[in-house]
Specification:
Elements lengths: L2 E12 L6 H6 L6 E12 L3 E12 L2 H21 L7 E12 L13 E14 L5 H10 L4 E8 L4 H26 L2 E16 L1 E4 L1 H5 L13 E14 L1
Antiparallel strand pairs: 1-2, 2-9, 3-5, 3-6, 4-5, 6-8, 7-9
């Protein structure tokens, strides 16, 4: 369900006098200006999820750790493709090989650092465009070797429509507040002098899934997508007359 919320976040009534050299020379009166900032917010259901998966493997040698990691990641990639995910939605997001050093024993004298093995980590960014498949994607990945995960971010593939609606709501909000202020001050609201978009603020719905990484459930991991909010702020200036 989509919803629109408009909120005015800041209103400034100022006697901003737009008097340049030409006005001074011609003896014209400066015009008072009303500055208003309005906000528009649109909430929409997400239609895509971005999942961060990772496989970490250890071995006595770098080759051993790399081979084990490659086997696990290959199984994960193949399972995701078999599940209907496209190649363009699977992207390696990090790869690292680090040595594992021997830890000093508390009851023994310190020893010079020595390498006891290697750890290989391989990250994968997965874009799930059918949210009904998301739980199954996480479940299959964990069972096939994924043992490290960051988060699931719910987003929208094409948020332009939602942002445009938020922009319209922000302008309507600013104009409404300008009319109220002008009426309260006993002046007439003139035409718009300037309008500027101060910024957009998409608020996605993140979900941490470390628990899912620790235990592969017998059934697909339950997912609640919620809604994403898109906020836009605009600054508008109106001329005033008595």
């Amino acid at each position: 369900m989509n919803s629109i919320v408009s909120r005015g976040c800041l209103v400034i009534l100022a006697g901003c006098w737009l008097a340049g050299p030409a006005f001074a020379q011609e003896g014209r009166e400066a015009r008072p200006v009303l500055n208003v900032v309005g906000e528009g917010q649109v909430s929409v259901a997400p239609d895509m999820a971005i999942v961060q998966l990772g496989v970490v493997s250890e071995g006595k040698s770098a080759d051993e750790a790399l081979a084990a990691n490659s086997r696990s990641m290959a199984k994960v990639l193949q399972a995701l493709k078999d599940g209907g995910l496209a190649e363009r939605d699977l992207q390696t997001s990090g790869f690292q090989i680090v040595p594992l050093y021997r830890q000093d024993q508390p009851d023994k004298p310190p020893q010079a650092p020595s390498i006891e093995g290697y750890s290989v980590s391989n990250g994968l960014t997965v874009r799930v465009r059918d949210l009904q498949k998301l739980g199954g994607v996480i479940d299959r990945s964990v069972k096939l070797g994924v043992n490290q995960g960051g988060s699931v971010e719910f987003t929208n593939d094409k948020p332009d429509e939602a942002l445009d609606r938020a922009r319209k709501a922000a302008v309507e909000d600013a104009m409404r507040r300008a009319r109220i202020l002008a009426e309260a001050a006993g002046v007439k609201l003139g035409p718009v002098i300037s309008i500027q978009e101060s910024g957009t603020n998409p608020v996605a719905a993140p979900m941490v899934m470390k628990a899912a990484m620790r235990n592969a459930a017998a059934e697909a991991v339950p997912i609640a997508a919620g809604e994403n909010s898109y906020r836009v702020t605009v600054s508008m200036a109106f001329s005033l007359s008595p």
